[in-house]
Design brief:
Chain lengths: 150, 111
């Protein structure tokens, strides 16, 4: 399932962001949306973060939102070597981001399924101490994620 | 400054978000919700609602309560709710105007 959503152009290795807002903006940039749409998506993501950080700990965050702006499910991945303060549950900086955006009603509830899969993958990465930081090639990172999908 | 349609779109996204975070499937993914912070979102929602003319807000709520959505984006001149082609000449509305799909009645958002 994730194979259909992942593409090299939506993977950013070496994020430049220094804080949470910049991180969200850099990730949303990967979706290549018009400026108006981008700002609405960003607002939705920030609202979601207010309710509780999507930094799930062990250096991983899964910012996500549904929005009327998009007509399809989008998944983007970002890696920050330095780590970004995302107010995660364990107060540790985040190095690996999975951004998920979906329309309000997606057939097959893809959004929730993908969210669950990413959460599982994230737990595996943390538990097995999988080294993703040394990966420089987006395609290699995608292959790693897909190998963990199970 | 957001147009009226954009405000309704943001309001819809907030409503959808509030429903989503309470669903069982969502909570299984392991996210935590700060109940206190939820009240901040509610306050923001109320502020947004106060900026919408009452008749339009009533229309929005009626649509949302019935269909779980009230705003649909337009893609290639098609309503993404009912997938009907819009009549020729239908254009992006002005700041304080709304355009409705003439088939399904959704408020149309032109990206």
């Amino acid at each position: 399932m994730l194979e259909k959503l992942l593409s090299e152009e939506r993977v950013k290795i070496g994020m430049k962001a220094k804080n949470k807002d910049e991180a969200l903006e850099e990730l949303v940039d990967l979706l290549k949306l018009p400026q108006n749409s981008k700002s609405i998506i960003l607002e939705a993501l920030k609202k979601r973060e207010v309710i509780g950080s999507t930094g799930i700990g062990r250096g991983i965050a899964i910012p996500h939102t549904r929005s009327t702006i998009v007509n399809d499910v989008y998944l983007a991945i970002g890696v920050s070597k330095e780590g970004i303060d995302f107010q995660s549950v364990d107060n540790q900086p985040v190095h690996l981001f999975f951004l998920l955006v979906a329309p309000p009603n997606d057939p097959g509830t893809t959004y929730l399924i993908v969210l669950g899969k990413i959460a599982q993958i994230a737990k595996r990465i943390a538990k097995e101490n999988i080294d993703y930081l040394s990966i420089e090639d987006p395609k290699e990172l995608i292959n790693l994620i897909l190998s963990l999908e199970g | 400054m957001k147009s009226l349609t954009e405000k309704l779109l943001v309001l819809q996204d907030i409503e959808i978000k509030l429903r989503e975070i309470r669903s069982e499937d969502y909570l299984k993914a392991g996210f935590t919700i700060d109940e206190e912070k939820l009240s901040e979102i509610e306050i923001y929602k109320q502020k947004l609602e106060s900026e919408i003319p009452p008749n339009y807000l009533r229309k929005f709520k009626a649509l949302f309560n019935k269909y779980s959505r009230a705003v649909a984006s337009v893609y290639e001149n098609t309503c993404t709710n009912c997938f009907s082609k819009l009549p020729t000449g239908v254009k992006k509305p002005s700041e304080n105007e709304l355009i409705f799909c003439n088939v399904c009645g959704m408020i149309l958002y032109f990206p």
